[in-house]
Structure formats: C-alpha cells, structure tokens
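Q: What residues go here?
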C-alpha cells in the first residue's frame, strides 16, 4: 500500500487517477507502475466537454525516469469518451502528451541531457532508450518550440549554405543576425528552396519589417530575396568578399608557381597557406619565409598586398568614400596587370549595390558563419546525416533557441 501511495505522490496524481499496482522485475531491472482511472466520466480532449466513459483503450506503456537505477514504466488502459462533436476520443493523461511513449518528466530530462552533451548516440545510451525514441523526443521538442515562437521584430537576417553530405548535397540556413539563432533550414540551395525557406521562417509582418539580408553572391539566394523581400536591402558581407579576394591571390600564386618551376625556381612551392593565413597567426618560421618572398616583389606578393589593402574599403565612413576607394584600388590592380584580382574586382562591380550596402548597414554574415561552425560540430558529433529532416531537427534543436520543454516555460 505504501509503494502505491509513494508513486502516486511522485507522479503528482490526483483523483480520479490512482496507482493500482507496482510490479518489481529484478531480473530485467524494471519497475512497472499500473494506473487506473476511477471515475465514470471524462473530458473530451478537443472541446473539454464532460461525457460518460465510453470504453478503454488497450494497455499502453510510457517510459518514466529511473527508480533506483531501474528502468521505470507507467502502464494504463486509458478511458475514451464519445463526443457529440469530435467522436470517440482518448482522454488526456496528466503524465504524458498525446501520442508520446515517454512521460513529461522523462522528456524534460532527455532534452536537458541532450543540450548538455550535444551527442544523440551517447544520450540514448545513457538513458537506455533507442536512438529512434530519442529522435522522436527531439522532433516533438522542435515542433513544440517552433509553435511557441512569438512574432518578434527582425531587422537583419543572414542566408547561407551548408553541405549536408558528400556529392554536393546542400542545405540553406536562414539566421537571425541579432538574436544569433537559426530561424529555419531548407533542403537544397536553389531559388525555390530559398524562397520556401523565407516564407516558412518569417511571417508577412516580419518580412515587411526587414531592413537588410546579409549573404554571399550566390544568384539563387539573390533572386529569392529580390522576389520574397523586395523592401529589404541585400548586403554582400566582408567575410565572403575577402574569401573571393583570397581565392584571387591563390590563383595568382598557382599560376606564378608553375611559371617559376619551369626554370627550376621553387620559391612558391608549398606556400599556399602563407598567403591565406593572417600574419599574427603565423609561426616564426612561416613569417620568416613569408617576408623573404615579399622582398622578391613577385606578382603573388602584389596580389596579396591588393587583397590586404581592400580591407580599408570596409572602414569607409560614407558611400562616397567607399566609391572613391574602390575606384583607386581598381585602377591600381589594373596598372599592375593583376589579372586574377581584376576578375574578382569585376565581379564586385557587378554586385556594387550589395557591396556598398555594407557601408550603409554595417552588418555581415559573421553570425551565419559562426552558426555554420556550430552546424559542422553537430555533423561531426552525429557522424553525418543521411536524411535532411534529421539534419534540420538537430540544427533547430541545438541552434534555434527554441522553448523545447514539454511544459510551458514560466
């Protein structure tokens, strides 16, 4: 009798729910708590109108928190009512949500453990449940969290791509630049997938209130934003621009290295990262070699200097200052015949509005790049994802800043 009362108190049950039996299975290290409903009436879960009990469902089982390191289960034949409006319905139980196979307390503990460990496999192993059951808990938590999102004002967003698996399989990630969170994720990086992502992640009011979108120069993203967010400015951020400039330097280096090697000059052999690395991050040995190469005033060194000089563009105080700087910089690389850098410059000219919008808004994709790094951690810990939906759930679970828990936050 005492054990039934104890578990009734632990589970927070009140009339008409009662603990009828507690079975202890030492061999299988399990505790099974049987609960009965001691009333002839129940409430419709849809309209909450009271009706007579119609019948009982088959016995169901829910995983609960362990008792003294023994796996604990709640079992119950849950009553059903016959509602005039909604038909035959199973009444709500106080220990679990609809269609769940775990209790509310178990779900909360599993979510807390996942957030702390960041590892689904190890969390499932620790909880002694299947990976599928844990994924179901995550999916429900994300669905719950998305439904609880309020319509906050969003001024700046970022859109970026992330590889999901080998074979050029990508996802598009929409992020909130101010709140440093993922808004949502879509499969692919086409115009249609980016448009779908914007419409799924933002309400009409939020779309109207947006000021700027930070992104790469990927045409599909540009077209989607122009179509779905006509009032928002496109900002091509400095991280991606510097990436293009670095690529121009590396192509220059490779071309010049081939020419030098024809005359048995190995000056630029294995020098790739000398021109891609920041000076402050170089070892003494790397810095010494880099300075010796610079003294030779190779074409590669000139391209590197042009790339470094372009950083001043982002410090321009006005649009006119930025335009003047770019014109001077472009003229300089043309006079030096830095062909690979000229090609990058022409691309920047073709996207001049997005380039100059950086000066207007002073936003970049640093949050999106940071989130990309975190997404890579999720991929690494999860050892990759074969299904897009599983990848999306993991990203939103860990990076969506959602209210994930099964009971409303107070």
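A:
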């Amino acid at each position: 009798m005492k054990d039934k009362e104890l578990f009734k108190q632990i589970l927070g049950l009140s009339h008409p729910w009662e603990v009828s039996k507690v079975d202890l299975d030492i061999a299988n290290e399990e505790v099974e708590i049987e609960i009965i409903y001691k009333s002839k009436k129940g409430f419709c879960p849809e309209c909450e109108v009271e009706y007579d009990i119609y019948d009982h469902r088959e016995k169901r089982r829910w995983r609960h928190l362990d008792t003294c390191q023994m796996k604990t289960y709640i079992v119950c034949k849950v009553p059903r009512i016959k509602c005039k409006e909604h038909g035959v319905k199973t009444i709500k139980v106080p220990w679990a949500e609809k269609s769940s196979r775990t209790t509310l307390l178990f779900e909360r503990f599993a979510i807390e453990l996942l957030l702390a460990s960041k590892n689904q496999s190890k969390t499932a192993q620790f909880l002694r449940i299947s990976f599928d059951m844990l994924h179901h808990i995550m999916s429900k938590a994300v669905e719950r969290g998305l439904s609880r999102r309020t319509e906050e004002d969003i001024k700046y967003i970022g859109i970026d791509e992330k590889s999901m698996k080998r074979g050029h399989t990508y996802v598009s990630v929409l992020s909130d630049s101010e709140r440093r969170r993922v808004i949502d994720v879509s499969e692919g990086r086409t115009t249609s997938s980016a448009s779908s992502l914007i419409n799924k992640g933002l309400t009409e009011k939020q779309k109207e209130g947006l000021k700027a979108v930070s992104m790469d120069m990927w045409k599909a993203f540009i077209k989607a934003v122009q179509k779905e967010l006509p009032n928002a400015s496109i900002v091509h951020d400095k991280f991606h621009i510097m990436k293009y400039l670095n690529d121009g330097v590396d192509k220059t280096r490779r071309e010049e290295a081939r020419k030098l090697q024809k005359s048995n000059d190995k000056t630029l052999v294995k020098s790739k990262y000398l021109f891609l690395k920041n000076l402050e991050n170089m070892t003494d040995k790397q810095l010494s070699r880099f300075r010796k190469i610079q003294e030779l005033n190779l074409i590669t060194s000139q391209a590197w200097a042009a790339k470094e000089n372009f950083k001043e563009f982002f410090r321009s105080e006005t649009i006119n200052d930025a335009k003047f700087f770019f014109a001077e910089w472009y003229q300089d690389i043309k006079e030096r015949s830095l062909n690979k850098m000229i090609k990058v410059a022409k691309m920047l000219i073709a996207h001049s509005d997005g380039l100059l919008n950086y000066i207007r808004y002073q936003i970049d994709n640093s949050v999106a790049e940071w989130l990309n790094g975190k997404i890579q951690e999720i991929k690494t810990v999860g050892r990759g994802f074969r299904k897009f939906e599983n990848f999306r759930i993991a990203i939103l679970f860990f990076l969506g800043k959602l209210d994930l828990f099964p009971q409303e936050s107070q």
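A: Context that may help when evaluating the design: The chain is about 50% helix and 20% strand. The mean pLDDT is 93.
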